[in-house]
Amino acid sequence: MAVYGALDIGGTKIAGALVDPGGRLVVRSSRPTPAREPAEVLLGAVHAVLDDLSAHAAWADLACLGIASAGPVDTVAGTVSPVNIPGWRRFPLVERIRSHPRVPAHVTPVLIGDAVAMTAAEHWLGAARGVDNALCMVVSTGVGGGLVLDGRLHAGRSGNAGHIGHISVDLDGSACPCGARGCVEGLASGTAIAARALAAGWTPPVGSAATAADVAAAARRGDSIARAAYDRAAQALAAGIAATAALVELDLVVIGGGVAQAGDTLFAPLRRWMSRYSVLDFARDLEIVPAELALDAGLIGAAAAASARTAAGTVRSGSAAVPSPPA
């Protein structure tokens, strides 16, 4: 049975998997992302995940290899410049992964943005199944997004369409590493939630690195500072989602990633803020749901993109070359 290789590279971890044609993970591996280290150290972590995957017997049936990466990405050039991984700027990731000694000569890696990959997965097998117009978001170390328009994945010319994390929602806000100010990511990412809570006087558990999950746990216990940190994140997300809905008329919003695992701690204030920001008739009462594929969506989407590109080439959507998910 053929298997699809997949990598999902984010600011916190580098994950890999072999995925079967039904979207089920056969084997997986991961390493922490050495996000502040030089480019070659980062690549070493990616290669370590590939080493793990290639040691599995199913690797002999590898048909394709997809790479979902934090962005921006350039799917034409095969390069990545993740905002939260400063060691990679226009890094030739596709070329360097292709050079791994265990990647077969017939396999050309296919690059896709991590949030676009999540969108492909949720549209194929998850919460956006059968939906014609959807925004799918990853809220984690960073904030990313992808779009389904008129029933097709829309990645844009370079693969970055839907990058909602770098919509500015606070004109006088803090500078973002991307170069703008007041970006959604700087207010709503897991990193931002933890930092806001700490700055307001919240005390993390002893021995904890102070994560958004810790803040969520405190919020569920009734901690007012923790709840306020999630409320502020929800407000920023609502502003970005409402702006996107006003532009492209959405039917559904799907939110995944580590921060979304907070459940109603995030979704309850998000829906409340949406009623304040999304007020136009065609955008009002927009349904917002959790991702169904949880933390596997990036891997499944990367596999789907690689499979589609390998089997049928690219499908044109507007000005973009977009891989469609498997049938």
Automatic annotation (TrEMBL):
Pfam families cross-referenced by the UniProt entry? ROK (PF00480)
Q: Which protein is depicted? A: ROK family protein
Listed InterPro entries = ATPase_NBD, ROK, ROK_cs
Taxonomy-wise, where does this protein's organism fall, top ranks first? Bacteria, Bacillati, Actinomycetota, Actinomycetes, Kitasatosporales
What organism does the record attribute this protein to?
Streptomyces cinerochromogenes
Provide the family line: Belongs to the ROK (NagC/XylR) family.
